[in-house]
C-alpha cells in the first residue's frame, strides 16, 4: 500500500514538525509525559509549535494548549526544555487548567 | 528533540515499523529504538515491556528518568467486497483513524463512482495480498458473501495474525465457511478468531448500521489486543 495512507500526514504533528524544519522554521515539540485521573489525551500525545505560535496536534482537549504554546515560544528562544504541569482549574474564569479534574505533565523541547 | 531522530522516527512510522523514542528527561537527549533492537539493563527491560503493551510512559533506570514514547503502526482496515456496507464503512473507518482499502474483483461493484476517495483494487484478493501482505496491525472484513472471493483473504488474515478478522454471513453460512477453512488447513483455534456474524450486536439493520457495528468491533479488537493471551497466561 502507498505510504501516504499509513499516516494521516496532513494532521500528524510529527510529520508537520518535520515539514516545518525543512522549511527552515524553528520548532518546539510538546509531549504529554504523565497523566493522573481523567486526562483528555493519552501519554505520548504531541503538540508541535513554531516560533510564530502556529500549532498542530493536542495535549489536552483544548484546555491548556494556549499556555503550552506561550511556553513553547520561550523554549524555542532559550533552547532549554521545560516540564509543565496542569491541574484542575480554579473557579476563576479563564484560569488555565483541566476542567475534567485530571492532571497532566507536558514536556516541551526545542527541535534541534 | 534531535532533528535526525525526528526524521528517523517519521521514516519508521511511514514504513509501518514499531519504534520507541527514548528521551532522557535529565538532559533532553533522545534516541530511536526499533522493535527487536537489543538494549541492555533495566532500560532494555522497560523498552521490551513498552513494545509489548504499546503504552508510553516514564521509567526510572540507570540513575535517570527516561520517557519512552511508543509509536505502533497505524491500524488499518482491508475490506473484501465493494458492496453497499463498504460504501458506509469506508468513510466511517477513515474518520475513526483506520485508513481503508477495498478489494473486489467484480468490476461492476468496484467502481470509483461508487467509492470516491477510497483506495480501491478491482482485483482478486490473491493478487492484492501478494503485493501488499497483511500484518498484525491490519483488520480484515470480508463482506462479499462469496466464498470464491472471501475465503482466501480470511485464511491469509488468520495466518498473518490480523488484529481483527470479521466475516459477513449468518451462523449457517459461517458453519459452512468453517468447514471450508478447515479443509484449507486453518486450525480450529485460528477459525475461532473470526467474528461471524460480523459486527457488535447492536441490532444493526441497514448497511450503514452494520458498518457502525463492524468498525466498533474492529476498534474493540484493536484496543484489547493481547489481552486474551495475558489472561490465558495468568
From TrEMBL, chain A:
<dbReference type="InterPro" id="IPR052698">
    <property type="entry name" value="MoCofactor_Util/Proc"/>
</dbReference>
<dbReference type="InterPro" id="IPR003777">
    <property type="entry name" value="XdhC_CoxI"/>
</dbReference>
<protein>
    <submittedName>
        <fullName>CO dehydrogenases maturation factor, CoxF family</fullName>
    </submittedName>
</protein>
<dbReference type="Pfam" id="PF02625">
    <property type="entry name" value="XdhC_CoxI"/>
</dbReference>
<feature type="domain" description="XdhC- CoxI">
    <location>
        <begin position="20"/>
        <end position="87"/>
    </location>
</feature>
TrEMBL record, chain B:
<dbReference type="InterPro" id="IPR027051">
    <property type="entry name" value="XdhC_Rossmann_dom"/>
</dbReference>
<protein>
    <submittedName>
        <fullName>Carbon monoxide dehydrogenase F protein</fullName>
    </submittedName>
</protein>
<dbReference type="InterPro" id="IPR052698">
    <property type="entry name" value="MoCofactor_Util/Proc"/>
</dbReference>
<feature type="domain" description="XdhC Rossmann">
    <location>
        <begin position="77"/>
        <end position="217"/>
    </location>
</feature>
<dbReference type="Pfam" id="PF13478">
    <property type="entry name" value="XdhC_C"/>
</dbReference>
Amino acid at each position: 500500500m502507498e505510504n501516504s495512507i499509513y499516516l494521516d500526514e496532513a494532521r500528524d504533528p510529527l510529520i508537520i514538525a518535520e515539514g516545518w524544519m525543512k522549511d527552515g522554521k524553528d520548532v518546539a515539540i510538546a509531549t504529554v509525559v504523565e497523566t493522573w485521573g481523567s486526562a483528555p489525551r493519552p501519554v505520548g500525545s504531541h503538540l508541535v509549535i513554531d516560533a510564530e505560535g502556529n500549532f498542530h496536534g493536542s495535549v489536552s482537549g483544548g484546555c491548556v494548549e494556549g499556555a503550552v504554546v506561550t511556553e513553547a515560544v520561550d523554549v524555542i528562544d532559550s533552547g532549554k526544555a521545560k516540564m509543565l504541569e496542569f491541574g484542575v482549574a480554579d473557579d476563576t474564569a479563564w484560569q488555565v487548567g483541566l476542567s475534567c479534574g485530571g492532571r497532566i505533565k507536558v514536556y516541551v523541547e526545542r527541535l534541534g | 528533540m534531535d532533528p535526525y531522530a525526528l526524521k528517523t522516527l517519521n521514516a519508521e512510522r511511514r514504513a509501518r515499523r514499531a519504534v520507541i523514542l527514548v528521551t532522557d528527561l535529565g538532559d533532553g537527549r533522545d534516541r530511536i529504538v526499533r522493535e527487536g533492537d537489543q538494549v541492555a539493563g533495566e532500560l532494555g527491560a522497560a523498552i521490551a515491556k513498552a513494545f509489548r503493551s504499546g503504552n508510553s510512559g516514564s521509567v526510572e533506570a540507570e540513575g535517570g528518568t527516561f520517557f519512552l514514547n511508543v509509536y505502533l503502526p497505524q491500524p488499518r482496515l482491508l475490506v473484501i467486497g465493494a458492496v453497499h456496507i463498504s460504501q458506509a464503512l469506508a468513510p466511517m473507518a477513515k474518520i475513526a483513524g483506520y485508513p481503508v482499502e477495498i478489494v473486489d474483483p467484480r468490476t461492476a461493484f468496484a467502481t470509483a463512482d461508487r467509492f470516491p476517495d477510497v483506495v480501491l483494487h478491482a482485483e482478486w484478493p490473491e493478487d492484492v495480498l501478494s503485493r501488499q501482505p497483511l500484518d498484525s496491525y491490519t483488520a480484515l472484513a470480508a463482506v462479499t458473501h462469496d466464498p470464491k472471493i472471501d475465503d482466501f483473504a480470511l485464511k491469509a488474515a488468520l495466518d498473518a495474525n490480523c488484529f481483527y478478522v470479521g466475516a459477513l454471513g449468518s451462523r449457517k453460512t459461517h458453519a459452512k465457511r468453517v468447514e471450508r477453512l478447515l479443509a484449507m488447513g486453518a486450525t480450529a483455534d485460528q477459525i475461532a478468531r473470526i467474528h461471524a456474524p460480523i459486527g457488535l450486536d447492536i441490532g444493526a439493520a441497514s448497511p450503514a448500521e452494520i458498518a457502525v457495528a463492524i468498525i466498533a468491533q474492529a476498534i474493540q479488537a484493536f484496543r484489547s489486543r493481547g489481552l486474551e493471551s495475558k489472561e490465558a497466561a495468568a
